[in-house]
Automatic annotation (TrEMBL):
Residues 17-353 form the Enoyl reductase (ER) domain. This is Alcohol dehydrogenase zinc-binding domain protein. Gene3D superfamilies: Medium-chain alcohol dehydrogenases, catalytic domain, NAD(P)-binding Rossmann-like Domain. The keyword Translocase does not apply. The keyword Plastid does not apply. It comes from Nitrosotalea sinensis.
Length: 356
């Protein structure tokens, strides 16, 4: 079968040097696994980190791809809930399923956890014609949800759901600030917060503000402007008058890091919450502790989410309450262009790739 493979790192982000389409054997399922034909797979920033070899080194030769959707073509002897012909999407959080964390419903905290298509291998990910996963790491796709929508949702929707619902425990009527609303994460963050009846302020670059509003955000602010935080606070003051409460933000959905960090902390109400995952613009930040201890701020870390959270999001997709935003679709032959576009960040929603 055809697979997108690299055998060396590209710390200079010159993907053309390393990405190659090669022929490798078709996978055969272990007793607890399913094999599915990949129809489409979604790009994530861990693909870039993998090719850089930072922050961790990964198994070589390597196949990336954590979000893949397709049709099951073979099942192992112990598989009971999935059959040949089922439409499935990956849940890329591989955990042991037997430790205290896993059996407590926190599989994302499993010490043996690996992100499929990032930490796995050699040659085990989603950017290939056929791939394999444990039965517990695939979720059936309803007939009215496309492969493209499911693949675009796999990691980003699950992570966004876990951040807002699982960790921050958002409630109707709260004012929620979605940072980076034009990203794959942000587009789902906006929709999940609206699903829960929140007032949503999204930030994005100027060209993406109108799209955030179309997606459901009540307000959109250009976070590339120096005074973006003042605009957000002014909006929160107007909302506070309507709600007869104090100005500020109840929950901040943070995944971009960098220079915005202390401005975000200052925007929070007393006793409010900032939930963070990832740091695409930089992870080494300085915190003004006064914004944390004096206001009783809750700072929550979050990574990926549970299989059940992916199923919950897929359910609401089937009801038309959440949708995937696909920026563009490439073939494996155009993988260099796809990854370069993701690196530059000039997109709204998810980038997908198909084998052909």
């Amino acid at each position: 079968m055809k697979a997108l493979v690299y055998e060396n790192y590209a710390p200079d982000d010159d993907y053309k040097k390393i990405l190659k389409i090669v022929e490798i054997p078709n996978p055969k399922p272990k007793p607890n696994e399913v094999v599915f034909k990949v129809v489409v797979a979604g790009l994530n920033h861990d693909d870039i980190w993998g090719m850089r070899g930072k922050p961790i080194q990964i198994p070589m030769p390597h196949i990336s791809g954590t979000d893949a959707a397709g049709e099951v073509v073979a099942v192992g002897s112990d598989v009971t809930t999935i059959k040949v012909g089922d439409r499935v999407v990956s849940h890329g959080n591989l955990s042991c399923r037997v430790c205290v964390d896993c059996t407590d419903g926190r599989e994302y905290d499993c010490r043996h956890r690996k992100v499929w298509g990032f930490q796995t291998g050699p040659l085990w990910g989603g950017y290939c014609e056929y791939t394999h996963l444990p039965e517990v790491n695939v979720v059936k796709i309803p007939d009215n949800v496309s492969y493209e929508d499911a693949a675009a949702a796999s990691m980003t929707m699950t992570t966004s759901w876990h951040m807002l619902v699982g960790r921050a425990k958002i409630r109707p009527g709260q004012t929620v600030l979605i940072m980076g609303g034009g990203s794959g994460m942000g587009t789902f963050g906006i929709q999940i917060a609206k699903l829960y009846g929140c007032d949503v302020i999204a930030t994005a670059s100027g060209s993406k503000l109108e799209e955030c509003l179309k997606l459901g955000a009540d307000f959109a602010v250009d976070h590339r402007k120096e005074d973006w935080n003042k605009q957000v606070f002014a909006i929160s003051k107007d909302l506070a008058k309507q709600k007869h409460t104090s100005p500020g933000i109840d929950v901040i959905f943070e995944h971009i890091g960098g220079s915005h960090w202390n401005k975000e902390l200052a925007l929070l109400k007393y006793g409010a919450t900032l939930v963070t995952t990832g740091a695409t613009t930089g992870y080494d930040v300085a915190s003004d502790l006064r914004h944390i201890f004096f206001k009783g701020t809750n700072i929550l870390g979050s990574t990926q989410g549970t299989r059940a959270e992916l199923e919950a999001g897929i359910h609401w997709m089937s009801k038309g309450k959440i949708k995937s935003i696909v920026d563009s679709i490439y073939t494996f032959e155009n993988a260099v262009e796809a990854h370069t576009k993701m690196l530059k960040g000039n997109l709204f929603g998810k980038i997908l790739m198909k084998p052909a």
